[in-house]
DNA sequence: TCGTCTGTTGTGCCT
DNA sequence: AAGGCACAACAGACG
């Protein structure tokens, strides 16, 4: 703790925005604006996040698809506008965030630095550099936890130093979250001298070197706190819907009016405070009386978010199979061809492909749609590593969130939390039960739009005359299925059963040395199974 | 929390 | 008035 002896140092404060791109319920901002003469609101544009990467599989940077970059820029534009209304503005700089912030701290003679605590490994490493620098120069640092309902450290502490691994145990530890701040600002302290640092205005996506992007379909969801609060009001208007919300009952094929709130991208960037959202929901529950409960209710969804944040924070290598103590070790297979077919929406299963196209175009898909394609890629059909799928989601989703995305891939692939590996989503009947006419498929896969509904989920079974009439020949205009679901899912179940029963599924190659003989044996079985599956697939293609 | 398939039972409506 | 029919809701097997 730095003593408040140096009034010159005290007078300059920096609020460093990363997530938490909002004014409302922003503890870091609130702490920053107190008792300072000059307030410097900073955001650092990271070239790795923004600049085009030609080697990536979709338009975007090394770290993000175009839709999420767009969402971030919109959020920054909105934040800047809000700050300007309060007599301030967003100071935008470009470069690697930590060194840039350190330079600014020094050049602007900052006495106090505030930023929202970030629990992700990337954020922790980034912030450590800045904290070390600050402590070296006697700069006070405040980093309140406000991205989640609870402080993951508190929950882990209450649980004896280990993160709770079930939702119910998490709930038992959590209690009620703290109330959001309700302070309304009319004016923030002014910005001081900024010297010769180049301050940018929020770039347009065209300014980032993406050339002609008019061909890319952009997400229908706009970023920013203003948009978030408007959407929240819209969602909460229908109190009966809010009170009766049950997550598993949503319709994944609804896209004109999605079955969930689609507030996740705003939570991801902190355009919407999760504590404020919680409070608003709680008020509705109180006024309505009868309402659904966790885990299925809307509040239950916020708690799921905190659950995954907590486990992710307390689990080393949470985003990997190897070295991850809570992750089953499963001999996933390598198959680039099948993986690329999945990623690019060319599996030949219209339900799967339509979802992957919506993901690419919108940057958002329904929760159960995520389940469908994740199951298909991993334990359901292709038996490909969940990390490969995780990477695709992480890039394309506008709401992609490190803890939640990894948590759900662990869940869906039966690698952690959930192990009912024989519960496999059918790539044919699951979608059909919600959307028998196939409107969702027709919309996202227009090549199939004239297929009769009898065949639209399994177009390869349509007689050639039907294919001709629909102007879409399977194998030419739309791919044949890459696997036979009956056979592939049976193989997967067999392999999952063996993998989960095997003691090696618990052995963690980085922690414990598996005996070399058992490893060899496992590898042998693995390649044998892949070979036999390939033969079967070839047979089915005919 | 969030599977699929099949078979049974119950319901509403028609003739 | 009883039988036929379609369909929803549910239960159990499967793995």
Keywords summarizing the entry:
542 residues, mainly alpha, Rossmann fold, DNA Cyclobutane Dipyrimidine Photolyase, subunit A, domain 3, five-stranded parallel beta sheet, 46% helix, disordered N terminus, DNA-binding
Structural description of this entry:
By secondary structure, this protein is mainly alpha-helical. Among the domains are: 1-146, Rossmann fold; 336-537, DNA Cyclobutane Dipyrimidine Photolyase, subunit A, domain 3, CATH 1.10.579. The chain has helices spanning 7-10, 27-33, 47-50, 66-85, 97-107, 121-136, 152-158, 167-174, 225-237, 239-244, 264-268, 274-288, 298-314, 336-343, 350-362, 367-380, 386-396, 402-412, 429-434, 439-444, 464-469, 485-501, 516-541, and strands at residues 12-17, 38-45, 91-94, 112-114, 140-142. Strands 3-2-1-4-5 form a five-stranded parallel β-sheet, with helices on both faces. Strand 4, helix 6 (121-136) and strand 5 (140-142) form a beta-alpha-beta unit. It is globular, with a radius of gyration of 25 Å. The chain binds a DNA duplex (15 and 15 nucleotides) through helix 16 and helix 22.
Strand and helix layout:
Elements: H1 7-10, E1 12-17, H2 27-33, E2 38-45, H3 47-50, H4 66-85, E3 91-94, H5 97-107, E4 112-114, H6 121-136, E5 140-142, H7 152-158, H8 167-174, H9 225-237, H10 239-244, H11 264-268, H12 274-288, H13 298-314, H14 336-343, H15 350-362, H16 367-380, H17 386-396, H18 402-412, H19 429-434, H20 439-444, H21 464-469, H22 485-501, H23 516-541
Parallel strand pairs: 1-2, 1-4, 2-3, 4-5
Helix pairs in contact: 5-6, 7-13, 13-18, 17-18
The protein binds a DNA duplex (15 and 15 nucleotides) through helix 16 and helix 22.
């Amino acid at each position: 703790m730095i003593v408040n002896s140096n009034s010159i140092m005290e007078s300059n404060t920096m609020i460093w925005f990363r997530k938490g791109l909002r004014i409302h319920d922003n503890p870091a901002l609130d702490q920053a604006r107190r008792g300072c003469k000059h307030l410097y609101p900073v955001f650092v544009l990271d070239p790795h996040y923004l600049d085009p990467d030609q080697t990536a599989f979709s338009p975007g940077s090394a770290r993000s698809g175009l839709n999420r970059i767009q969402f971030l820029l919109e959020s920054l534009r909105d934040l800047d506008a809000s700050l300007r209304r309060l007599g301030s503005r967003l100071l935008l700089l470009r470069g690697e965030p930590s060194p840039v912030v350190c330079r600014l701290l020094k050049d602007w003679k900052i006495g106090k630095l505030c930023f929202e605590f970030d629990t992700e490994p990337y954020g922790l490493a980034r912030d450590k550099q800045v904290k070390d620098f600050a402590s070296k120069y006697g700069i006070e640092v405040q980093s309140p936890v406000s991205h989640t309902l609870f402080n993951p450290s508190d929950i882990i502490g209450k649980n004896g130093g280990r993160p709770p691994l079930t939702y119910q145990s998490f709930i038992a530890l959590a209690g009620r979250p703290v109330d959001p701040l309700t302070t309304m600002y009319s004016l923030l302290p002014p910005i001081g001298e900024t010297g010769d640092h180049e301050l940018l205005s929020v770039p347009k996506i065209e300014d980032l070197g993406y050339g002609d992007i008019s061909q890319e379909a952009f997400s229908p969801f706009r970023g920013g706190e203003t948009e978030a609060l408007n959407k929240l009001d819209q969602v909460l208007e229908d109190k009966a819907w809010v009170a009766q919300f049950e997550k598993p009952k949503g319709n994944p094929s609804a896209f004109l009016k999605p079955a969930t709130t689609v507030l996740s991208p705003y939570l991801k960037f902190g355009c919407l405070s999760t504590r404020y959202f919680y409070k608003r929901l709680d008020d509705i529950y109180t006024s309505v009386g009868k309402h659904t409960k966790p885990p299925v209710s809307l509040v239950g969804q916020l708690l799921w978010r905190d659950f995954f944040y907590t486990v992710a924070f307390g689990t080393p290598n949470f985003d990997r199979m190897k070295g991850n103590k809570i992750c089953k070790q499963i001999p996933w297979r390598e198959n680039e061809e099948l993986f690329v077919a999945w990623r690019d929406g060319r599996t030949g299963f219209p339900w799967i492909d339509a979802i992957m196209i919506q993901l690419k175009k919108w940057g958002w898909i329904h929760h159960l749609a995520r389940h469908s394609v994740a199951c298909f890629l991993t334990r359901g059909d292709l038996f490909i590593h969940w990390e490969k799928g995780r990477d695709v989601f992480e890039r394309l989703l506008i709401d992609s969130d490190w803890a939640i995305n990894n948590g759900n891939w662990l869940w869906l692939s039966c690698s952690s939390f959930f192990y009912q590996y024989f519960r496999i989503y059918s790539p044919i009947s699951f979608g059909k039960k919600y959307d028998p006419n196939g409107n969702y498929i027709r919309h996202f896969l227009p090549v199939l739009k004239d297929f009769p509904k009898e065949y639209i989920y399994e177009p390869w079974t349509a007689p050639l005359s039907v294919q001709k009439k629909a102007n879409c020949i399977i194998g030419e205009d739309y791919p044949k299925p890459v696997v036979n679901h009956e056979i592939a899912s049976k193989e997967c179940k067999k392999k999952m059963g063996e993998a989960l029963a095997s003691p090696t599924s618990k052995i963690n190659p980085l922690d414990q040395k598996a005996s070399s003989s058992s490893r060899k044996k496992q590898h042998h079985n693995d390649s044998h199974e892949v070979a036999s599956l390939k033969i079967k697939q070839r047979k089915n293609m005919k």
